[in-house]
């Protein structure tokens, strides 16, 4: 199931990340195009109806609706970050999390990609199907997608979803921040 998941998703996610990077790199963002009066303002408005233009940085970082889910990820990871003004800067800051060792970078990268992938799908669900999901459900999807991607990428990532859901840092091999009373019995920590 995980192998099948990997084949189906990897191409779409790779394409999405490519588009996202080019969209954030491009100077012809939606806001810029709007300033040139190529598109009407209502076409550029954030789908959440927060009143702002839907730029990549706004959607994933600063939107009161879509961008407000990061604190849930902080809580899950037991970390705290100040969100910067630019999404590419935030990506670098996130995967090089201060205080966490180098071997966590690949895990954090997967979590970041899972977050923007899930949020993009949530955004499209609202655009095309008028579907709205609550923040906690969205965050659960981030946990699930990141877990499935890690399983498909790393054959020796042997933790269960419950382990990942409850103790992501320990699954990354980080022990210093883990309280000793946490009971972890399923497998030995993975070091990538
Ligand atoms: Zn918005």
Furnish the topology, listing elements before pairings.
Elements: H1 2-25, H2 30-35, H3 41-44, H4 56-62, H5 70-77, H6 87-95, H7 105-129, H8 135-153, H9 161-166, H10 168-172
Helix pairs in contact: 1-8, 7-8
The structure holds zinc ion.
Structure report:
With 192 residues, the protein is mostly helical. The protein has one domain. It is 59% helix and 0% strand. The chain is built from ten helices and no strands. Helix 7 (105-129) packs across helix 8. The longest helix is centred in the middle third of the chain and has 25 residues, at 105-129. The radius of gyration is 18 Å and the shape is globular. The structure holds zinc ion. Zinc ion binds at residues 46, 48, 50, 52, 58, 63, 65.
Number of domain units? 1
Portion of residues in helices?
Answer: 55-70%
Write down the Rg.
18 Å
* Low-confidence segments: 25-29, 178-192
Q: Report the order of strands and helices.
A: HHHHHHHHHH
Strand content: under 5%
Mean pLDDT rating? 77
Computed structural class: mainly alpha
Can you summarize the main beta sheet?
none
Bound molecules: zinc ion
Q: How many E-type strands?
A: 0
In short:
With 192 residues, this protein is mostly helical. The chain has one domain.
Task: Summarize this structure as a short list of keywords or feature phrases.
binds zinc ion; 192 residues; 59% helix; disordered C terminus
């Amino acid at each position: 199931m995980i192998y099948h998941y990997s084949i189906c998703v990897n191409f779409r996610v790779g394409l999405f990340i490519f588009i996202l990077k080019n969209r954030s790199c491009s100077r012809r963002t939606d806001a810029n195009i709007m300033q040139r009066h190529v598109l009407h303002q209502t076409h550029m408005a954030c789908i959440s109806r927060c009143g702002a233009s839907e730029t990549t940085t706004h959607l994933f970082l600063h939107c009161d609706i879509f961008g407000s889910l990061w604190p849930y990820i902080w809580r899950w990871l037991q970390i705290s970050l100040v969100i910067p003004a630019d999404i590419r800067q935030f990506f670098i800051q996130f995967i090089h999390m201060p205080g966490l060792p180098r071997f966590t970078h690949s895990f954090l990268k997967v979590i970041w990609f899972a977050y923007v992938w899930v949020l993009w799908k949530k955004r499209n669900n609202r655009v095309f199907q008028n579907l709205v999901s609550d923040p906690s459900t969205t965050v659960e999807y981030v946990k699930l997608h990141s877990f499935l991607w890690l399983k498909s990428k790393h054959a020796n990532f042997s933790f269960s979803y419950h382990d990942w859901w409850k103790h992501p840092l320990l699954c990354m091999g980080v022990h210093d921040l883990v309280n000793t009373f946490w009971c972890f019995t399923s497998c030995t920590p993975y070091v990538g």
